[in-house]
Amino acid sequence: MRLQWSHSVIRVRSLELMVAFYRDVLDFQISDRGPLGPNGPEIVFMSGSSTDHHQIAFAVTRGEEDASSLEHMAFRVDSIAQVRTMFERVTKDDRVQGAAPVTHGNAISVYFSDPEKNGIEVFCDTPFSVQQPQIQSWDPGLSDAEILAAVEAGFRNDPGFMPMSEYRAQMAQTFGENDA
């Protein structure tokens, strides 16, 4: 299984300051934003490319006492089977803390922490785009086809649900990637 670096989620104190910096200095664009849960703090997803829903995200969850701003680092794999394999591996390792199978509609993931409580996400993309943030669980005991069908059924009526190819075409327009 080959892990490919994907994105980081950073806990911040000043959301608008960080969004403006990444927009103005690195030319990132906001791809989504919203509350983490019904009464949760806001999270903003940003990217510099149409190929990634987000390359960085900022959540207003950093307290004055927090030494680290890292929420989690994420690694992409090629298939649901590889995510399932990682889930099975980390649930058998006593150094791993809090393994959880999670889907955001656009990804099927397993979240867990390393021995020093650094958050890790291993995920594969789905063929769907869903407005973020979203979170549901998925059943590692199902087949790949059953998992994908359950994800589609769970998100199909949500705002912004569309084929990923359509979402990427829209974002290519936003980033001017279609301009010759």
Summarize the structure.
With 180 residues, the protein is an alpha+beta fold. It has helices at 15-26, 80-91, 144-155, 164-174; strands at 4-11, 29-35, 42-47, 56-59, 70-76, 97-103, 107-113, 119-125, 128-129, 136-137, 162-163.
Keywords:
about 180 residues; alpha+beta; 2,3-Dihydroxybiphenyl 1,2-Dioxygenase, domain 1; two-stranded antiparallel sheet; 4 helices
Structure description:
With 180 residues, the protein is of the alpha+beta class. It has one domain (4-174): 2,3-Dihydroxybiphenyl 1,2-Dioxygenase, domain 1. It contains four helices and eleven strands. It has helices at residues 15-26, 80-91, 144-155, 164-174, and strands at residues 4-11, 29-35, 42-47, 56-59, 70-76, 97-103, 107-113, 119-125, 128-129, 136-137, 162-163. Strands 2-3-4-1-5-8-7-6-10 form a nine-stranded mixed sheet, with helices on one face. Strands 9-11 form a two-stranded antiparallel sheet. A hairpin with a 5-residue loop joins strand 7 (107-113) and strand 8. The radius of gyration is 16 Å and the shape is globular. It starts with a strand and ends in a 6-residue tail after the last helix. The model has no long low-confidence stretch (mean pLDDT 89).
